[in-house]
Amino acid sequence: MAITVTVPDHLRDSLIALGLAVETAPERAASGASVSTVETLPEGGYSPPPWYGRLRFALTAPSQRGATLFGPRGSGKTTAVHRLAAETGAGLVTYQAAAGCVIDDLVGVRDLLDGRTVFTRGPLADALAQDCWLLIEEANVMHPGVFSKLNTLTDGSGDSLRLPDGSSLPVGPGFRVILAFNEGAAYSGTREVNAALRDRLMPIYADYLPPAAEVAMLRARTGCDEATAAGLVEFAGGVRAARASLGFDLSPRALFRMLDLIRYCGCSWAEALEFGVLDLVGDPVDRKPQREAIAQIADLRSMAQWGEPEWAQSVSTVETDEEGES
User: Fold this and answer.
1) How are the residues of the chain apportioned to helix, strand and coil, as percentages rounded to the nearest 5?
2) Dihedral class, residue 40 (left if φ above 0, else alpha if ψ from -120 to 50, else beta)
C-alpha cells in the first residue's frame, strides 16, 4: 500500500531516482527548509492510479454493490482489483468471460460423478457462497442477457440466487461485482454491457497512469534510467493520443517488452520498437500505414538516437562449461 510522507529535498531526490516514490507536492517546513511530499511505491513498483480511491469506495462502502471498470488495455484494471482485495482482506473470485458464455457458466451446472448427479458451482455461486468479490474479465464480449441474473443481486433488494439443485444462496454484505473490460473504437468484437446492471454498479473510467507515475513504475520494474523511462512514456503518450485514428493502443506491457528486448536480447532501439510494438500492431503489409505512423511518432521523440542505455550494459552473463553446466 502506498504511503504519503514528507521528506527533505535530498531524500526526495534519492527516493524518486531509485523509483521508490513519486512526488506529489512541494512544501516548506516550519523551520523554513524546503521539503516535499512524496508517495512511496509498494514493492514491485505499483503506483495506485488516480481512480483507486473510487474503486475502494465502490467495493467497500456498504451502500455500493460493485463497479464497472472500463478503459484502455494495460491501464491496470485487474491489478488494481487484486491489490485492493489484498489490502482489505476480501476474497476474490475471477471469471474470464467469452463470447459463447451462457448463464449456466456463471451459476453452475449439474454433472455426473460416479453415477451420481452433483451440482458444480459456477463463479457467481462461488462468490455468493464465500460472500466475496466477483471479478468478470472482458465482460463486454458476453451477450448482455447473460448478466440479467445479476440485476436483482446488485440492486439491494435482498434477493437470493436459486440454484438448479433447489437450494439458494443469499446476497451477503461482502458480495460485490466488478465488470472489467476494454472499451473504445480500438477494441473490436465487443458488445454493450447490460444497461440495467451497469446502472447498478459504480462506473469508473480507468485511464493510464499520469506520466510521472508511469515513469516511476517503469524505473521500478526494469531498473532503466530516468531519461529512458521519460522518453518511452512520452512516446506512449503520442501513440495513445492518436489511438482513435490508429485503431491501436499502447499499454505499459509493450514498454516493458521493449526494455526487456534491449536489456536481455541486446536489441537496438529500432529492433525493440519493431519487435515489441510494431509487430503488435499487425501484419507489415495490411497494417503498414499504422506501423509507419507509430514509427514516425518514435522518430519525433528521437528514440533512434538514444543509443545504448547504461542500464542495459549492467546485465551479467552466465558462462557454461563444455558439458553445458553452469
Assistant:
1) 45, 20, 35
2) beta
How many Å apart are CA 295 and CA 281, to the nearest integer? 11
Residue 281 has pLDDT above 80, yes or no: yes
Query: CB of 147 within 8 A of CB of 161?
Result: no
Q: Which amino acid would we find at residue 132?
A: C
> Alpha helix (H) ranges present in the chain?
9-17, 52-60, 77-88, 103-107, 123-130, 148-151, 195-200, 211-222, 226-241, 243-246, 252-265, 269-273, 279-281, 288-300
Class of residue 3 by CB neighbours under 10 A (exposed 0-12, middle 13-18, buried 19+): exposed
Place 120 in a pLDDT band, splitting at 50, 70 and 90. Answer: confident
pLDDT at residue number 277? 94
Structural domain boundaries in the chain: 4-40, 52-205, 211-309
Q: Model pTM? A: 0.72
315 with 265: CB under 8 angstroms? no
Strand partners, 93: 134
Which superfamily, per CATH, for 52-205? P-loop containing nucleotide triphosphate hydrolases (3.40.50.300)
Among 57, 186, 160, 164, which Cα is nearest to 118's? 164
User: Is the CB of residue 70 less than 8 Å from the CB of residue 181?
Assistant: yes
In whole angstroms, give the CA distance from residue 191 to residue 217: 32
The label of the residue with cell 505499483 reads: 46
Q: CA–CA distance from 168 to each of 59, 121, 130, 171 (Å)?
A: 24, 12, 13, 10
Quote the radius of gyration of the chain (alpha carbons, Å).
24
Sheet holding 133-137, edge to edge: 92-96, 133-137, 176-182, 66-71, 202-205
* CB-count burial class (<10 Å; 0-12, 13-18, 19+) for 226: middle
